[in-house]
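Customer escalation, tier 2.

The customer says the design service returned an amino acid string that "doesn't look like it belongs to this structure." They asked us to rerun it and document both sides in this ticket. The original structure tokens are below, unchanged.
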């Protein structure tokens, strides 16, 4: 069933903003999840539908950085792909098993975690990069287990996933930011794709809302890429952190 006009306008605006945020610095899920919940979509379904809506943006990012895609230290690209798909599928299946009431109680904490990851992301990456440089490349099995764990998180709730992945690649010994960004986008796309398959099979995607938001998120991603160079980075980061805190506070109030 297609949403009523006021709800449709809210979803279009949230998806446009989310696409722009993801193109510039990340944090799009801070807008899509609350918008869907406030239009009456159950929390688990809202999380799934928002992931579907943002999938085209992830795919476009992978295509844009395909030349920088290189295997991280300790793993082949095939291993990265399979571990990402497995972790994403497990996380998505876990979401399907989570009752809406339980997820409603978890969401504010997940939003706070995602906001903290975004706020302290640069320092976290610097700290992990220094630790990786001091200890050398992580053992292959630890890299694999770590990527699987990150994949489960991304399949369950992808807020803050980009920062988590960048920090993880630093810990693995990667040093090129272009390589790390390309890998981040590749893993994000795979996680979103497999999660969408699981969500669709579980019947927890509201397709009318998802299709509306896909179009708006794609347009927002294009606009965000065009505007990215005109807005000071510190303003963007502060705005996204503030958005995350406000959304978490509103969800705490609803709990």
């Amino acid at each position: 069933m297609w949403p009523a006009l006021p709800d449709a306008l809210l979803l279009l605006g949230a998806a446009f903003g989310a696409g722009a945020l993801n193109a510039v610095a990340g944090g799009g899920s801070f807008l899509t999840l609350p918008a869907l919940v406030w239009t009456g979509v159950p929390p688990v379904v809202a999380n799934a539908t928002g992931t579907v809506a943002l999938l085209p943006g992830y795919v476009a990012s992978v295509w844009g950085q395909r030349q920088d895609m290189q295997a991280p230290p300790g793993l082949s690209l095939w291993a990265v792909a399979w571990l990402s798909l497995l972790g994403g599928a497990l996380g998505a299946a876990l979401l399907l098993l989570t009752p809406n009431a339980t997820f409603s109680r978890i969401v504010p904490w997940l939003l706070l975690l995602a906001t903290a990851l975004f706020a302290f992301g640069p320092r976290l990456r610097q700290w992990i990069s220094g630790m990786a440089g001091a200890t050398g490349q992580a053992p292959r099995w630890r890299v694999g287990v770590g990527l699987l764990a990150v994949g489960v998180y991304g399949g369950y709730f992808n807020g803050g996933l980009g920062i988590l992945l960048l920090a993880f690649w630093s810990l693995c010994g990667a040093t090129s930011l272009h390589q790390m960004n390309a890998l981040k986008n590749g893993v994000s796309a795979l996680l979103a794709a497999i999660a969408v398959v699981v969500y669709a099979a579980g019947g927890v995607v509201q397709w009318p809302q998802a299709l509306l938001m896909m179009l708006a998120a794609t347009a927002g991603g294009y606009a965000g890429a065009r505007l990215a160079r005109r807005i000071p980075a510190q303003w963007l980061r502060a705005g996204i952190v503030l958005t995350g805190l406000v959304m978490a506070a509103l969800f705490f109030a609803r709990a």
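Tier 2 assessment: The sequence is consistent with the input. The CA atoms of residues 2 and 34 lie 18 Å apart. The chain has eleven helices and no strands. Sent an explanation to the customer and offered a walkthrough call.
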